[in-house]
Design goal:
The chain has 14 helices and twelve strands. With about 375 residues, the chain is of the alpha/beta class. It folds into two domains: about 140 residues, Rossmann fold (3-Layer(aba) Sandwich), CATH 3.40.50.720; about 180 residues, RNA polymerase sigma factor, region 2, helix turn helix motif (Rna Polymerase Sigma Factor, Chain: A). Strand 5, helix 4 and strand 6 form a beta-alpha-beta unit. Helix 4 packs parallel to helix 5, helix 5 runs antiparallel to helix 12 and helix 13 packs across helix 14. The longest helix is centred in the last third of the chain and has 25 residues.
Amino acid sequence: MSRRVFILGSTGSIGCSAVKVIQHLRSIDGKGSWPVIGLAAGTNASLLQKQALLLGTEAISLNTPSAIQCSHSYPSAEELLENHAKRGDIVLVAIVGFAGILPTLKAIECGCDVALANKEALVAGGKLVMDAVRNAGVKLLPVDSEHSAIFQALSNAPLNEVSKITLTASGGSLRNLPEDELRDISVEQVLNHPTWKMGAKVTVDSASLMNKALELVEAHWLFEVDETKIQAVIHPQSIVHGMVEFNDGSVIAQLSPPDMRLPIQYALTWPNRAEACSKRFDWSTSQALEFEPICEQKYPAIKLAFEVIKRGGTSGAVFNAANEVVVEAFLQHSLPFGSMVGIVEQVLENISIQDLVDFETVVAADQEARHQAHFIIASSKVNS
């Protein structure tokens, strides 16, 4: 079952969990199994060094110069893959944000299967990525817990038998607050997620449900379904991660305790399953599962997601870029929480959407959206 592995974004939350999964798989399959050929990180040189030593990895990439002791060091994940990846390897892409698109495309070009934990690659460049996957004859395996759940529930069923795909949302750290209290909520309150331990950007997106909006767009590309066949519901327990309803009314769901090691391990070992290193249910205790519809007035990001799916082209790149800018502004205490999604909507309205033909088109849309979002934020400060 063992495969050669690359972990891109190894020092982030998903990357650190992936390191634990590799250690677990080695305990099952033997010390020499699951060789980690390359690790890539942004700026955390000290942790990257420790991971390389722990896993016996001889090739790394780091965005910032650092004196890391390693046989092969590169300034970018793309160069790391260019020099060391082989057809049949599996590349876990856990780089956050727009920066994950190029490494994803490079991994596919190298003939590697991709375990994708970077939703922006599909939100901003979905057509490019999925076309590349088909042309290269490789597999794209979702690592987001929700998309992994749908992937498992579908189990190769024909898409014409699928009636509805449902993603679940925890509701984030602000789920129980009324809408009128959300505008001026503090960064500290938003980052206090009740269920998941995630990076700051993802945690903010979870609170606004922008994370779920991005995942709806991602699901559209992954599972080749339009906006009429996708929905999201709030499920505070984060136990049911996704559901597929078939034409005959049957609903198949994937359940597991909230632990990212499970979808990571499933992507690495697919189509097989290994002994778990993640949490398990204790069915001897009482369990309750709650579901509630999402109020689009409280969470307008969901409505925007469906508009992006319908518009296609570069709308996903604009959507993603504007969101990255407003989240960063919020985390820097430069923008109220309640203003973020409205600014993203303004950017979508202001920018002409182009057909998505190549990576340069995606980059141009991304840059224009960022410029527009910064301009709106600066204008709101002047006029406030």
